UniProtKB/TrEMBL annotation:
It comes from the Bacteria. Residues 31-176 form the Methyltransferase FkbM domain. Residues 232-308 form a coiled coil. This is FkbM family methyltransferase. It holds the Pfam family Methyltransf_21. It comes from Rhizobium calliandrae. Keywords: Coiled coil, Methyltransferase, Transferase.
Amino acid sequence: MAATITSYAQNREDVILNRIFQDLKDGFYIDIGAYHPTVASVTKTFYDRGWSGVNVEPGPVFDELERARPRDVNLKAAVVDYDGEIGFLENSSNPGMSKVMPAEVHHDHNVSTEQISRVSAITLNSLVAKYAKDRTINFLKIDAEGAEMAIIRSTNWKVIRPQVMVIEATAPWSNELVNQEWEPKLLTNNYIRAFFDGINVFYLRDEDKELLSRFDMPLNVLDNYGIFDQGAQQLRIDQAELSARNTELTEKLTAAKARSDTLAASLDLSRDEVTRLRAMIADAQSDAQDAQRDLQRVAARAARYDRLVSSLRDPDGPRALRIVLPLARVVRKISHVIGSRPKVPMAPHDISKTSALLAGPRRLSPKRIALAIYRRFLGPVVRPSMGRIRLFMMQPVSDQVARVNDQVAGLRSLVETQQRTGEMASEHIKSLEALIITIASQTRK
């Protein structure tokens, strides 16, 4: 039993043809009025078996036909009795009923020129010479919606000899044969009328009349065929598209989950950073508080020192200070006089005199007596007081207080900056949390 085939043709023409050519693996066909690559296609079964051929279709479905049949020659044209252009009337409600419209015809049928498009016109002689020369045409199908007579009458059947011709030979939507005008042309060119399926007439060339017996039986279960279910095919297509869509959504979900994990990790890092910043802020605040306390202590001490300096400078100050200050001034003047007297270098001839004087008894002058008394009794008391007074007079404490104030202001600026950084980090964490919640909600959907 032959292998099971799928019938795509509207009236099972492909099953009859498969019975004739069941043993031929690499055949060739010409399909005039090919229409769709699958729906109502006489050639689809043979294309799937490895055959090839020429498909002619002038309608808008041509683009789909061309995409589905890369191994075939596909022509967007109409086969008529001349080469050039011809009008084409598309039937939008039933595209399979679209047909060519010569100018004299559409004027008679009151068809507006806006409904007519222009398509290329070619004869079967030109088509075969260009695309099928030296090829054996196993079968020729003609479904030209009224242009069959023009094609048959203009073709040289002595040169073009397809083994089998399948020609639509009835009036639209009826079993009434309308082949009376063009069938004699085929019969006189040695073609045999082999079979009528109710719509099409099968013609067999006389050279292959041994195949005539294969047309004797009607279609039956032994032809081993199944019928193409367009609804099931569409369902399979929809399922494939749904599967692809599910795969795409799964990939997007995986990517969203990975993104969510990345954001969660980033959120954890941000939280750790915020915790660190908060600890730094707390340390800075603690340092600022310590500095504030130090500043308060320094300010209190500076106030005491300032009061002391003011008291020292004030003639009406405390009595003890009034006594010390004049004495300090006298001592300073004495020190200045003693320390500022220039030393005159001794001449060489005076050195002997000086040595003689030093060798004799030393005389006590009032100056030496006053200096000895100062060093013995007043020096130990006056010197420390004068040192302290000079220190506070020469370097006011207010400068130190100003420096401490600057340091405290710097600490406060640092604390404020860290606080702003902590607030920004908190806002960043909130944004990350909101984004993770959004992704999670979309993932659930």
